[in-house]
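# step 3/5: fold
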Amino acid sequence: MRTASALLSAGSPETPTVGTARLGTLIVVGTAAAPRVPREPAHVARHHRSGLRGRESPTGHLMRVMPPEGGRMSENVPEHVVVAGAGLIGLATAFELRRRGTAVTVVDPRPAWGATRAAAGMLAPVAETQYGQEPLYPLMRASAAEYPRFVERVTAATGLPTGYRTEETLVVAADAADARSLSDLASHQIASGMDVQEIPVREARSLEPALAPRLAGAVRIVSDRQVDPRLLASAMVEALNAAHLETVEGASDPGPARWFTSKVDSLLTTSGRIRQVTGVRLDSGEQIPADAVVLATGLTASTVGGLPQDLDLRLRPVFGDILRLRVPESVLAPGEEHLLSRTVRAQVLGRPVYVVPREDHTLVLGATSREDGRESVLAGGVHQLLRDARTVVPAIDDCDVLEMMARARPGTPDDLPYLGRTSVHGLVVSTGHFRHGILLTPVASRLAAELVTGVLDPGVEHGADGEFLASTDPARHSQADPDTASLDHPHISGGLA
């Protein structure tokens, strides 16, 4: 069992490398150090507790009992949960479970190395708006609203930076056709109740002098934010390894997480018409007993053995190429500290591109979107990103290329995530977050933890949770099994899922 720390810093960060990872490719140019986190404490295993806890029905299955609003029913909170998948949502889910008094085991062959590693980290429920995705809007807004408290909790637990920044977003148009498209989208956003301001290009250039002089339109979105997913993932691992953690409603802290650097091969369940999770089997053959399992493995979730036969997770890989650049001091004007201070998004001949500035004088350029099944970084994708980015920010030409990466994001037929309970008691699915995984992390992790434990966060408004879970029901694309259809329970009704 390797530590999560060893994984996040795997390889030699001081040596240029070209390597291929599952579901994507990474090309590092120069020195791009991976996130570093403390090693897992040696006493972690002492906090790993299995065994079932709760009330048994006459049939031997655990009964779910509704806790008081914002409260806790300790006899109904599972002692031990396995979180399969350690992308940002999986890590955050484990964090939220621990906050509710549940011991967690995290299973992932390489934590935070998939889509999380590539993500730009834009928290942009307004700028990310697309036609036809109206059911996503409330979920995106709610998660963006929860982000400040979420980041505060992580920072309080670790003292580590997360890259959370409150600077706004500028969206610009390269030519007249792009400007019309941008204005039409702004009208749609305003009609949907979003705060969007169309501004003159001159004003946009006064806010960001590095913008090209001959742009055709601009929009200002003051509510958008950003986070650095790599820093946040490192902080999450640190929080899970911390000796102590502040908990919800005075729950007892079960102690640091346990880590397995393996894949979950299959679920372990009881037999019979109504199945109950009892643990997982790893690809090494090792079995881990658990009271509940949260399946957050992204694209591979549908390949895990033991899923309900009536559950059809229609996940598809949507690949994207993304670049990271360093801004040399020679590019900056006298007195300037950064080339850009805000996220800049653009339409260039109908193609979207974004440039996200970081505090360390790097830029994230992204991202292409393709469903060709190719895991490699494509030359055409790199060319497109650089060409379109330099059209908007000409100084891109003089920046150093640090990294080129391709990763697959898990999409669903309706672009809504799969988040909720299943007909197997104790199994919660959390996958298919597509382009919005980083943005949806607070609400997705909270809802998954609340479904498992029944312990509600008293600092959050829960009025819309039922609607969220109804829209993200993992079984919505499945044909109902008459033997389990009556077990459908998208709402929160107590612990042990």
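# step 4/5: annotate
Confidence is low (pLDDT under 50) at residues 9-23, 30-74, 484-490.
# step 5/5: archive (pending)
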